[in-house]
């Protein structure tokens, strides 16, 4: 597990680091309270992957689809408003997770039994107004 402090200005290099450490893992789970900086970090990662369309918090849909300049597809999930994990099944979450595309997930806590067995876990914490703490690690419940 890696732990470090970061400022907004560190996000471009931090995104690059995360993409490198995550390796082949395409399912990323972001944990942290409201305002911890999950959406801001996902935006930085999308910027690094050269996402063509602007990224915003998916307030109205559970999942937003993005496309990179290289034609790569990326999914951004926000399960904050989901009350029943069965809703995730309804939107085809298992197909998304098996697609091989990046799945960047906020509020995976609400997925219940549909949380994947293997993922890259990123935890964010507020240290002060402009300073955050990140811890990241690979999780594998299958082995
Ligand atoms: N080091 C930092 N990293 C990320 N965000 C920061 C940092 N310093 C200040 N901020 C500010 O904190 C806020 C983080 O909001 P953001 O929407 O990313 O949080 P969130 O975890 O996605 O919350 P929510 O669950 O409500 O969507 C932004 O306004 C951002 O500018």
Automatic annotation (TrEMBL):
<protein>
    <recommendedName>
        <fullName>tRNA threonylcarbamoyladenosine biosynthesis protein TsaE</fullName>
    </recommendedName>
</protein>
<keyword id="KW-0547">Nucleotide-binding</keyword>
<keyword id="KW-0963">Cytoplasm</keyword>
<dbReference type="Pfam" id="PF02367">
    <property type="entry name" value="TsaE"/>
</dbReference>
<keyword id="KW-0067">ATP-binding</keyword>
<keyword id="KW-0460">Magnesium</keyword>
<dbReference type="GO" id="GO:0002949">
    <property type="term" value="P:tRNA threonylcarbamoyladenosine modification"/>
</dbReference>
<comment type="similarity">
    <text>Belongs to the TsaE family.</text>
</comment>
<dbReference type="InterPro" id="IPR027417">
    <property type="entry name" value="P-loop_NTPase"/>
</dbReference>
<keyword id="KW-0479">Metal-binding</keyword>
<dbReference type="GO" id="GO:0046872">
    <property type="term" value="F:metal ion binding"/>
</dbReference>
<dbReference type="InterPro" id="IPR003442">
    <property type="entry name" value="T6A_TsaE"/>
</dbReference>
<dbReference type="GO" id="GO:0005737">
    <property type="term" value="C:cytoplasm"/>
</dbReference>
<keyword id="KW-0819">tRNA processing</keyword>
<dbReference type="GO" id="GO:0005524">
    <property type="term" value="F:ATP binding"/>
</dbReference>
